Please model this.
Amino acid sequence: MAQLELTNITKSFGGTIAVQNFNLAIETGEFISFLGPSGCGKTTTLRMVAGFEIPTSGTVTLDGVDLTNLPPNKRNMGMVFQSYALFPNMTAAQNVGYGLKVAGKPKDEIDQRVDEMLELIQMRDFSRRYPNQLSGGQQQRLALARSLAIRPKVLLLDEPLSALDAKIRLELRQEIRRIQRQLGITTIYVTHDQEEAFSLSDRVVVMSRGLIQQVDTPIQIYNHPASDFVAEFVGHINLLPVEVAQAKEGLVRLGSQLIRAGQFEHLNGRPVRLAVRPEELKSGFAEGANNLTGKIESVTYLGAIVRVHVDVDGHLVSLEMFNERSLNIPAVGQPYQINFPVEACWLTNGEKE
Amino acid sequence: MKTQKKNTWAIFWAVLAMLYFFVPMLGTFIFSLRMKRGVLSFQAYQSVLADSRFLESFRYSATMGIITVLVSVLLLLPTVYWIYVKVPWMRPAMDIITILPFVVPVIVLVFGLIRTFGRPPFQLTLTTFGTDILMTAGYVIITMPYMYRAIDVGMRSMDVRTLTEAAQSLGSNWFQVLTQVILPNLRIAVLSGALICFATVMGELILADFLVRPALGSYMAGIGRSKAYEPAALAIISYGLTWVCLGLIQYFSRGSQEQQLTGR
Ligand SMILES: Nc1ncnc2c1ncn2[C@@H]1O[C@H](COP(=O)(O)OP(=O)(O)O)[C@@H](O)[C@H]1O
Ligand SMILES: [Mg+2]
Model:
């Protein structure tokens, strides 16, 4: 049985529904991310797990115990906030020890545990500093240590890295993963950053408008997105308007050019779109693959990656290639041939969001 | 050249302002020393301090001041906290409600209090204790704008809601959050509010006059009507008191800055 279960959770604020029909079972020690655009209900869901919001309907159970209506101070869950929320009147050590002090633990035990936690985040030398004497990254590490000091059953993080600059964010991301693995603590991590969610998580919950779109491993979500929303939100993707050419053969037409897209009886006769990731597209001709010809529309160097837009019969197709020395891209306006494997593309009939 | 010119003007205005403030004070001070004809002496001060009614009224007002501060903090701190955490949309309404004591004249407040509590069923004016309760209530209302604003500013300088949630997730109940997390970070705000409250109560005279209690304000007004030099000495004493209050605010806020080097 799963450790933490969210069953049929719905939450509405007045008239607006923030979260709808949320079902999720989380195993002990699992690292789960809630990923989605701003306002999709990630924070609200996390706050219901923490006890700061009561679900309009549905239940939250931990180790088989229903805690839907239990106040947050009785739940034994660690929470890390985007704004750190360290207590300004306490030193680093006092912040980390606060939860144990509230629990009435003896002083020796508190001191020892605080030491241990500061060691874990490599901040022993800073134990006497006040929060405003620490950098953002140090403050957030301290907040993490503070939430873990009480040995919570679940660790909850709400966009913990969003207030930090890129380099620190990357460092701290790895540190969070290391500590989570070391302690084996069940973790829910809220983010709108796909890279963060993918690099950290065992499983990712993609949300949109209060609804779960997909729950799966990062690789599955990237390679087999459950909907156009997921496909577009996670990484980049070409969604090209195509017409059905020969349903039995699995052939569609982009402009005047034929593309083999596999079985699609379920979409027969309807307007459909072809989905293919930009990195699956290659330049040149390849036997057995889908081959298209067009004209170079634009070339953008992003560093390691070169992005090329090709005009194929009036439709823009985007390619991403590694910026290798051998790469030889013609000038804008020149004809260009591209190809991609049949297995790399799929058809959808979803509406564009 | 230009900055030098600016500096000259700045100094000019500063000196002018100082003169505006200090010349009358100096005049009052010198006048208060002239009780004995021909020589400067502290006779007027001796006369004031020797008057048992002065000490009595001082003690009375100081006691009332402390009680007012305590009641005011106990009333407003949890209220403002609750508003910040649970009903933040109430804040504009609170801003208006707490400014009402400035709008309604004290005299109106006093008549309201006497009319309501001067007769059954809520008669409080029969005993001095009952009257003192009325006094405290009146003082709490009169000083509410200061205390509310002091606490409000303190709360605004920190993220009360998130701090509360952080403390709760670490196991704190509401009382622990308020006393261990919120109050320590509001120390300066509450203290400065308390000192302003205290100073206001020390100088208030209408409430005490109408409820016939021996407050310092009424005593000073009475002296002012009947004597010449003593009121000047009293004025200087109360100036001194105000400065001591301000000094205390400064002293305590410096203490906290040493503890936490920068902003918040
Ligand atoms: N306390 C609240 N009162 C009213 N609406 C809220 C409240 N909290 C969140 N919402 C609404 O619920 C939706 C989801 O919000 P949230 O969970 O914060 O999204 P996310 O964290 O994914 O950005 C939003 O439309 C937001 O406006
Ligand atoms: Mg959020």
User: Anything to note?
Assistant: The helical segments of chain A are 42-50, 92-102, 107-120, 136-149, 166-183, 194-200, 218-223, 228-233. The CA atoms of residues 301 and 307 of chain A lie 6 Å apart. Residues 4-233 of chain A form a domain with the Rossmann fold fold (CATH 3.40.50.300).
